[in-house]
Amino acid sequence: MNDTQAPPPVARALKLAPSLLAADFARLGDELRAAEAGGADLIHVDVMDGHFVPNLSLGPLIVEACRRVTSLPLDVHLMISSPERYIGAFAEAGADIITVHAEATPHLHRALGLIRECGVQAGVALNPATPLTVLNEVLALVDLVLVMSVNPGFGGQTFIEGSLRRLRAARAIIDAQRPGCLLEVDGGINHETAPRAYHAGADVLVAGSAVFGGEGGVAHNLTALREAVQRADG
Ligand SMILES: O=C(CO)[C@H](O)[C@H](O)COP(=O)(O)O
Ligand SMILES: [Fe+2]
Asked: What does the buried/exposed string (b/e) look like for 197-230 if buried means 16 or more CB atoms within 10 Å of the residue's CB?
């Protein structure tokens, strides 16, 4: 290779983040250990308040319990209104990444600053109908961008096809303005959508039903997702 040739593109590392929303809560410790042993890269914790989204789910006590069981990074997805009220509690509980929705607060800039002040990595999540232009205003403050591929609030929904276009656009914005920032996709990820989301630019694939559901078991399901992405590489 001479000096004028561009180096070959480096494959982005794929990270799988099982979403606890689909886990068996009566066996949470076992589910976490199975995910870790099965090759998960992060544990995704969905927090819902019955206000920003219609459903209720987990709080800081569960994050604290997870912290005692796994050493994997805890990726906390806050689907709550005015998330700045609870950032301290989730940081204290052991979150490694806290992601807030751009639609959930008029004080997004402040919320992201608060997360960083707590010594935690900051993420911004965008609902399917939210313009990506909001990223221009906050990208310097974030370590992760989460493109929702379903409307938040429930597991087991169908992947919204338009998310692929949004992932490609978000990838281009990140590469141009904030290299190193992770691009995460969440909702409806399975063996069919995972390769397409990865190749559209996602680094982190969140998957609930496809990991904790079905008969195959957590380790088998994680391997199947990873292999589906690798097969599509070739
Ligand atoms: O944030 C979420 C829903 O709001 C969940 O992380 C997501 O839905 C994962 O579940 P599944 O993989 O079953 O779609
Ligand atoms: Fe989520």
From this structure: bbebbbbbbbbbbbbbbeeeebbebbebbbebbe
Would you state the pLDDT for residue 221? 98
Q: Atom 8, ligand 1: which residue's CA is nearest?
A: 155
Atom of ligand 1 nearest to the CA of 151: 4
Ligand 1 pocket check for 156: Cβ under 6 Å: yes
Instruction: For residue 86, report the distance from its CA to the centre of ligand 2, in Å.
Output: 17
ipTM of the complex, rounded to two decimals: 0.98
- pLDDT at 25 (0 to 100): 97
Residue 6 maps to a domain:
no
Answer yes or no: is pLDDT of 122 > 80: yes
Classify residue 75: in a domain, yes or no.
yes
Do the Cβ atoms of 24 and 46 come closer than 8 Å?
no
Binding-site residues from annotation: 19, 44, 46, 77, 153-156, 186-188, 208-209
Ligand 1 binding pocket includes 44 (Cβ within 6 Å): yes
Dump pLDDT digits (tens) for 130-185: 999 999 999 999 999 999 999 999 999 999 999 999 999 999 999 999 999 999 99
CATH number for the domain including 205? Answer: 3.20.20.70
Structural domain including 185 reads 15-233
25 assigned to some structural domain: yes
- C-alpha 79 – ligand 2 centre gap (Å): 8
What's the pLDDT tens digit per position in 123-145? 999 999 999 999 999 999 999 99
Spell out the alpha helix ranges (H) of the chain. Answer: 28-37, 60-69, 87-93, 108-117, 134-138, 163-177, 193-199, 209-212, 218-233
Q: Which residues are catalytic?
A: 46, 186
Single pTM value for the model: 0.95
What is the number of domains present in the chain?
1
On whether residue 5 sits in a domain, the answer given is no
